[in-house]
Amino acid sequence: MVKITIKGLTFGYNGARILDDLDLVVGDSEILSLVGPNGSGKTTFIKCIDRILKPKGSILLDGERDLQSMSRGDVAKCIGYVPQSSSGVLSTTVFDTVLMGRKPHMGWRVAEEDIDKVVEIMKLLQVEKFALKDFNELSGGQKQRVLIARALAQEPKVLLLDEPTSNLDLKHQLGVLETVRSLIKNTGVSAVMAIHDLNLAARYSDRLVMLQDGKIHAVGDPKELLTPENIRTIFGVEAVVMKDLDRPYVVPVGSLSAE
What is d(CA 118, CA 98) in angstroms, rounded to the nearest whole number? Predict the structure, then answer.
């Protein structure tokens, strides 16, 4: 079943086109990763789905609900967004930060089920020990895990992750992506993730979308897309792709511009 259908998605700033007529579908329980160089449109694409930006074209949820015509509150019940930066988060405790994710579902008072959901998600992301600390006192990696917990507390149908591992050490990169993948496979939630690390993308994604200059260069299984030819074309890098692992593993050899 298709979770999101995107048709003719186009967006630009000051006359410069950033996304150019994109068509894409995201399936149930699918992790779809956006890869490409800086400036290829990954973050813009995610912000368009979350309605932070207002593109041309259509974005349909479950094949019928147009996200662009839904209220902000209704969108928040369906879409969980984890930004690259935590700069917009107010000075609150970690518990209250995660609790904000329940806002679309809460009435005038916080219900016991909201508290239970927050505690459950915090344990899952291993941030419960920071519950009473000020969010802004955490390390960059700890903040990232709390923001993911906040998005999951919304119980979204679609999770949008913009570079979710950028501030994490290797252990927590793997831990967070393992948690996200497990949740998605067990709950039917779908995820669209912008990520730089091609090897993490290959390991945790069902499909990749290769973006170049705001256009889709290719979509498909990581095993098919991560080839030396595609990496050379998209990133301007010569690479060896190891095929003897369960997933392809990219080893950069050198930049084409350096030759």
Answer: 6
Q: What is the pLDDT of residues 87-99, one digit of tens each?
A: 667 789 999 999 9
The C-alpha atoms of residue 4 and residue 90 are separated, in whole angstroms, by 31
Structural domain 2-225, CATH architecture: 3-Layer(aba) Sandwich (3.40)
SS (H, E, C) 119-188: HHHHHHCCCHHHCCCEHHHCCHHHHHHHHHHHHHHCCCCEEEEECCCCCCCHHHHHHHHHHHHHHHHHHC
Which H helix or E strand runs over 18? Answer: strand 16-27
Give the whole-number percent of the chain exceeding pLDDT 70.
97
CB 45 within 8 A of CB 34: yes
Alpha-carbon distance values, 85 to 38, 141, 231 (Å) = 16, 11, 27
Q: Are 145 and 172 in contact (CB under 8 A)?
A: yes
**With 70 as the cut, is the pLDDT of residue 257 above it?**
no
How far, in Å, CA of 144 to CA of 167, rounded? 7
- Alpha-carbon distance 152 to 146, whole Å? 10
pLDDT single digits (tens) 170-225: 888 898 898 889 888 888 889 999 999 999 999 999 999 999 999 999 999 999 99
Q: Give 192's DSSP letter.
A: E
Listed residue (207, 212, 205) closest to 232, CA to CA: 212
Q: For the chain, what are the domain ranges?
A: 2-225
